[in-house]
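QA checklist item 7 of 12: single-chain prediction sanity check.
[x] sequence parsed
[x] length recorded as 198
[x] structure emitted
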Amino acid sequence: MNGIGPFERYGTHAAPLDSDFFKQADEMKILGKLAAAAASVGLMVGPALAADPMPVVVPMVTPVVVAPVVHDWDGIFFGTFGMIPLFAGAQVGYNFTPGNFLVGVTLRGGALVDSPPVLFSSVSVRAGLVLGAQDRAVVYGTAGLVGLWNPGVGVGALATFGGGAEFAVNDRLSVFGETRATLGAGCCLWMMGINLAR
């Protein structure tokens, strides 16, 4: 051999292979294996997730129950009453309600329309029942004493009794109607009025 290489003999020259070429080839093989592994994991996990979905948690909401507002008859009240043009007056009283029963006392004062006018005052007690879905109605019986002062005659006192009903328009305002009979006088008086509580 005269020292001529096998490629030189045919007049061609071959450059040696670069080492980066083999590195890139190895990296491509590794990436391919990783992609295949990821695909196989996805194929295994996907059906499992589809078969066992995550539970949906629904928060529990407690309903709010609003109790009906019940009217309170207890306490002091004041108001006006009368039957125009016969008489008119003012009153003040106190109610007490043990359960569905009402017990109260009322003081009244006013004047009969006359010439000259006849002044009167009365004290009476009443007892009745509280009615209605929200305790807004009362029916009651009443009895008491009424005093009269007539400038031309003098002073007198008579016993009275009767009954009535009262209805609460709201927490403060109520309206009532009442009839009274006076012993010894043989007459009846009808009256209406309004009360303001406390």
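[x] summary fact logged: The helical segments are 19-51.
[ ] second reviewer sign-off
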